[in-house]
Write a sequence for this structure.
């Protein structure tokens, strides 16, 4: 039996350490990993917990991230609680197997420390890797700070392992900004954390020899479509279980999570939608602007997949102008957040003016001052009743102003 | 073509891909395939023809139509060495208690490996055209080759 650790009511943890503690408390059976900056400490710490008898599990060293995720899928299909961590290039190498995991409906947890994708090579945070996973069939939860990274990792096991879901779950946090910034974190004690998740319940596990089962079947045009349709429905339907798990977590800790987080949206005239640690920057900016008389609000999808269309639409029902901020280079298109949110808003009779900012690539700093400037630009759109800039702009890039795609008026 | 030795009610009863089509709401979660219709303990100790294979196990499918040439087995020359049983990539050599019984023609794809590895003289397994009758093939089986002096 693994030894228990007594934790302080308030620990000073960075995002990586917080996640590794959550993996320990979940008593993950198998972690197969190929460590990569900035997520390295997550699996490194798990390895030391195994070595020191703090978790009854196996740490499997492999030769690449493709092998890491493959071993995780195998272990999950065999019937174990499984997790790993990655970032950036490692995430890209895992992608083929991410689709295998979700298609096989194995509930494993991937903690992603978001980092820019080369080329050019960059170890700092942006959302290029997270966005590359958005069609992979995983539940994607997004943490904005270390506390949330810890909390959401515990929730991730409970969501994915629910018999109504049985899907793999990613927990995202921003590279360095969250993963390497020590903050106050209020953890659960070991028993409380483990009991919240519960014992792993195997389903169609390969190690049950009395019920022989084959994973990884081939399906062509006669079967493939039905299986993908069923999987798509499972992912969309997972939102009910996510809500239940968040509600149960609130009962236990007092900390409340929603599939869409809204700040000061009750009377907001202008809003910004964003993901990751930027959300906290935007909240500070919005609070300061309120003192200047600008009714600013912030909306943040806590769950990126399944995308919360209804809740986004409701959160932005009454704003006059809203800007979606994408921390990933969309390369020849609008940002993904812009596309998803605009699609949700198009089904509302009251359609606000929408625009898109690309910002913070490769870890470029995003300041409160810049956030306030963008809020004020939204106010100008709202006052004019139409967009006063190109639909897509860049924030914080050197050189002449960049703008793409204009609203067609008249 | 006869179904060969140890054929059962379920072996090779449909072409591969001729499963009953169902909608998205009836396919298995995760595209898993269950080998058997019921739970079955110690299946390795149960002979194939007695196992409750499901409709999604390859046991119930036939791929005989893929074959252009087929192996024919001659009991009179066979020494039960088991080479063919070991080498067959489709477990289509049927052997019991180390005694060779014949070919599972529902699953044999006609690759010829068994005939290639057969060490007897003449060979106990020879590839013939799919249309060849077994009796005709046995009637024209080659003689033992003499060693060149």
């Amino acid at each position: 039996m693994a030894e228990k650790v007594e934790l302080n009511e308030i620990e000073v943890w960075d995002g990586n350490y917080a996640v590794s503690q959550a993996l320990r408390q979940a008593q993950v059976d198998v972690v197969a990993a190929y460590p990569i900056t900035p997520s390295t400490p997550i699996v490194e710490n798990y390895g030391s917990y195994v070595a020191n008898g703090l978790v009854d599990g196996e740490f499997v060293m492999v030769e690449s991230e493709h092998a890491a995720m493959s071993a995780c899928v195998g272990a999950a299909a065999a019937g174990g609680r499984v997790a790993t961590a990655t970032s950036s290039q490692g995430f890209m190498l895992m992608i083929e197997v991410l689709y295998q995991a979700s298609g096989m409906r194995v509930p494993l947890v991937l903690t992603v420390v978001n980092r820019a994708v080369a080329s050019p090579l960059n170890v700092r945070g942006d959302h290029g890797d997270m966005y590359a996973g958005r069609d992979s069939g995983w539940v994607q939860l997004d943490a904005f700070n270390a506390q949330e990274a810890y909390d959401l990792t515990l929730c991730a096991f409970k969501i994915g392992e629910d018999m109504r879901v049985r899907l793999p779950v990613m927990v995202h946090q921003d590279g360095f900004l969250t993963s390497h910034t020590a903050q106050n974190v209020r953890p659960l004690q070991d028993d409380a954390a483990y009991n919240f998740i519960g014992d792993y319940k195997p389903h169609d596990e390969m190690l049950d020899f009395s019920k022989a089962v084959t994973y990884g079947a081939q399906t062509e045009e006669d079967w493939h479509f039905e299986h993908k349709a069923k999987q798509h429905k499972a992912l969309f339907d997972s939102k009910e279980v996510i809500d239940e798990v968040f509600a149960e977590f609130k009962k236990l800790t007092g900390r409340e999570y929603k599939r869409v987080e809204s700040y000061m949206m009750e009377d907001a005239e202008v809003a910004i939608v964003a993901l990751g640690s930027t959300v906290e920057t935007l909240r500070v900016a919005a609070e300061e602007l309120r003192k200047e008389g600008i009714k600013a609000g912030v909306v943040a999808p806590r769950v990126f997949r399944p995308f919360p269309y209804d809740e986004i639409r409701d959160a932005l029902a009454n704003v006059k102008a809203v800007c979606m901020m994408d921390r990933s280079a969309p390369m020849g298109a609008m940002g993904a957040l812009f596309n998803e949110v605009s699609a949700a808003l198009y089904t509302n009779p009251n359609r606000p003016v929408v625009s898109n900012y690309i910002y913070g690539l490769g870890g470029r700093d995003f300041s409160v001052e810049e956030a306030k400037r963008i809020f004020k630009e939204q106010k100008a759109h709202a006052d004019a009743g139409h967009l006063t800039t190109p639909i897509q702009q860049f924030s914080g890039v050197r050189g002449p102003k960049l703008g793409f795609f204009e609203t067609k008026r008249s | 073509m006869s179904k060969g030795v140890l054929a059962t009610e379920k072996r090779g009863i449909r072409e591969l891909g001729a499963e009953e089509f169902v909608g998205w709401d009836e396919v298995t979660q995760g595209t898993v395939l269950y080998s058997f219709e019921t739970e079955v303990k110690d299946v390795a100790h149960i002979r194939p023809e007695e196992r409750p294979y499901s409709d999604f196990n390859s046991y119930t499918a036939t791929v005989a139509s893929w074959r252009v040439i087929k192996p024919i087995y001659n009991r009179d020359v066979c020494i039960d060495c088991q080479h063919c049983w070991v080498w067959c990539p489709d477990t289509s050599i049927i052997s019991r208690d180390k005694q060779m019984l014949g070919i599972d023609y529902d699953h044999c794809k006609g690759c010829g490996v068994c005939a290639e590895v057969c060490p007897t003289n003449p060979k106990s397994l020879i590839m013939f055209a799919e249309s060849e009758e077994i009796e005709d093939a046995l009637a024209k089986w080659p003689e033992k080759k003499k060693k060149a002096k």
